[in-house]
Design brief:
Layout (H helix, E strand, L loop, with lengths): L5 H14 L3 E6 L4 E7 L6 E7 L10
Antiparallel strand pairs: 1-2, 2-3
């Protein structure tokens, strides 16, 4: 949980995925969804990763 607006959380999550070396498959800021693939070090297994970002319904300050 982050105490930032969803758009900022999405940007942070996208940056984190890139920093971890994940292969970006798709990103849709409007839907709050990031899809990526991570490859394991030892055997090269591919793991699918989906990140979903959404607000919690609280109104953000201006």
């Amino acid at each position: 949980m982050l105490d930032v607006p969803p758009a900022e959380a999405f940007s942070q999550a996208l940056a984190a995925a890139g920093a971890m070396g994940w292969e970006l498959v798709a990103d849709d800021a409007a839907a709050g969804r990031i899809e990526a693939t991570d490859t394991t070090f030892w055997y090269g297994f591919k793991d699918d990763v989906v990140i979903r970002v959404r607000g919690d319904g609280r109104r953000q300050p201006h």
